[in-house]
Structure formats: C-alpha cells, structure tokens
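Quick one:
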Amino acid sequence: MPDRVRLLRNASGIPYSLRQGYPTFKMSDEGVSAVEEYVINLDDMNAFYLLSMPPPIVFGDNVQLFNRRNMPGTLNLPTKNLEFRPLADDLPQDPFGVDPPGYNNPYLIAKINYETNPINSGGGVDPADPTTFLEVSFDATAEFLKIPSNKTNFVTAENATAQGRADRCGGSLNADADRTAAGNNVEIEVKANEANIDTEVPTTILIPTTTYTVTWKLALNPNFALFRSLIGRVNTFTDPLFFDAPPETILFVGYSGSRSFLWDGEGETTITPWNLTFKFIGKHVEDADGAVYGWQHIYRPSSGAFMKVLRANLNYLYNCTTTWGPMFRAGGLI
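Output:
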C-alpha cells in the first residue's frame, strides 16, 4: 500500500476518505441501519469519536447536551457505535517513531454503524439515550369515597315525579326543582317523601385520581430546599406539564433520587449527576354542569356537593404555587 493516503477534510477539519463500497444499508420492518468506513489519521481517532458521539459539556451548574451525528444526507439515522482498526493490520508498531516510511502505517479505518431510532423511524426519543433528561408518565384510576346516607333518597316508580333532583342521565324528574346557587356549588332542595330517605345505608361516590411520575435525569445541582417547600402545594393555574390540568387539581406529594460515586481503582473518583423522580397526584371531580373540583374541595354530605374548606386560620386546605418550572431549572436544563 502507498506510504501516504490522499484525504479530504470534513466540516470540522478532520482529514478523511470514504472507502470504496460504502455506505451499505439494511432495511427491515424494525427500521434502517447503515455502515460507513472512513480512512483517517491515527492521531485523529479521538477527534473523530467526539464528532460522532459528543459528550455533554458542563458550564458550572449548567449542562449542554448534543445529539449524536447523523449519517450525512439523513435526518434520523444517528450514530449507534464506532469501531477502529488499522488500515494495514500486518505492519508492526513503531514504538520510537524512527522507522522509515512504509515500515508502519499511521492510518486507521473508522467504521460507523448508524441505526434509526428504536421507537420509530420518524425521529422519536430513545429512552436509553442520555439526552432524554425529563420524562412524564401517569396512571389514571379512581377511589371510592364512602359517605353517610344523610339525605340519600331512593327513587321509586311511585315517587319519581316528586323528586327534586334532576336526573343527569335522561332529563329532569322535576323541572321545577328549587335550586339555590352558592359559589361554584349548587344546593338542591329535595322534595321527597320521608319514607324514601334512608339514614342508615352508606353510599359511595367515585373520586377520579391520576398519579403522575416525573423523572429528571442528569440533574447536576438540584434545589432540594425548593423541593421540600413545594411538597403539599397545588397548582394555581392551568398546568401544561400535566396535560392542561385545571387549577387546584395537581398536588405535589414527594420526590426521590439517587446518584453514584465511581472509583476507578487507582484513587480517582467520579460523582454522577442525580437521577430524580417526582410524584404528583391529580384529583379531578367534574359534576354534570361541568364544574371541576380539586384538592381544595371536600364532599359535604349534608349538601350532597363538593365545597371549598377554610381552616381556622382562614386559609384553604393546601397552599398554592404558580408553576412547577423552578423545580427543573436548578441545573440549567430548562
């Protein structure tokens, strides 16, 4: 082989030459993969690696994340891994750098394996990619709340037209029901026979709840004091982080985290960023008129409605926060 190889320079100034027969492609239902092989200088191996798989850069408490290099001419064919091998693997090394030309060869073959995103081929986020630093998941369910049978009316065929409660699933049983507005709540005067009011049989109502889990990866300097101060608070405004949840329906209940202290066996240690998990619970009760009741409301059996509660200090049950954003800005990520 020749002593010198003619190389071009890429946009970063690294000399290279694409080998004949490359790139190659493989396509299947699971995605697309491709392989390129370049000839590069031995001294440029580290620079070539950093170009294809750039690590995060830390500026004090801030971190800048970079995407892996895409295959030239593509939008969603990122680098999966790299392999390096000598261009001529039958030549001995030159430990002193004094051998004549041709005795050794200062060139490498850089093999780049590209692969489309494992989730889809349209540019989705790979959960295993370290650039995914914030994830939101949820589990929607409901709780059964047992309530006293105070003013519970059993509807029979004989007294159906005498009920003062509107039938929300099929018209009104009595269009002339006496209703009194009280804030966001409606108290309905029941016009029913005493024989149909049972004071001993308890009933249940359904309270829809959603548990949200927010995972924050690569947290460099989280504000734990802020986290502690926000436990037990609810959202003041519509919350975009939780699918535009209405005010007072999202409650922050706690957080957990972990990080590692790595030792290389030679006395050097490395501290990894924090991996934090936050727990929020949504309470969303909606009546037939579309009014929404959240954490500041409790069910009042005597009225048959959800109402806000004031404590002895004239404050509501839970303190509020205008946004959860400052929780995730502590490391400069958003």
